[in-house]
Amino acid sequence: MHLSGAILPVSPAIAVISIVWVNKGAFKSQSWKATTLARMVGWKVIGSAVHSPAAENIVYEHLGKNQFAATGSGEIQYITPGTIDIFANAWHRGCLIAPVTPS
């Protein structure tokens, strides 16, 4: 996984995060159950984040439905609206934008 980002110092501060994730093993993503990928250290989300649809190389029928999300505690998550099988070495790319404050 590669995460990169920046905190824009406006009021409130805004986190802009780029996500590139290749899952090493196959797994089943449960409907609307989040897979936690990382956590922002030193920051917490204080409002609604812009959740980006993930660009992925998965089964065609699931493209454009899955997304990255940020929680109030700063967790960065992958969420699918249905239960789907994700094959090994699938790539997922996207971004998040969220208002944040130091934790």
Features:
103 residues, mainly beta, 11 strands, 54% strand, elongated
Helix-strand blueprint:
Elements: E1 2-8, E2 13-22, E3 27-29, E4 35-39, E5 43-45, E6 50-51, E7 55-56, E8 67-70, E9 75-79, E10 84-86, E11 91-102
Antiparallel strand pairs: 1-2, 2-11, 3-10, 4-9, 5-11, 6-11, 7-11, 8-9
Global Rg: 14 Å
SS class: mainly beta
| Mass-distribution shape | elongated
Distance between the termini: 24 Å
Could you name the ranges where pLDDT drops below 50 across 5 or more consecutive residues?
none
Helix-strand string = EEEEEEEEEEE
Please state the average pLDDT score: 89
Report on this model:
There is one protein chain. The chain is an all-beta fold and 103 residues long. The chain contains no helices and eleven strands. Strands 1, 2, 5, 6, 7 and 11 form a six-stranded antiparallel beta sheet that branches. Strand 1 (2-8) and strand 2 (13-22) form a beta hairpin.
Quick rundown:
The protein is 0% helix and 54% strand.
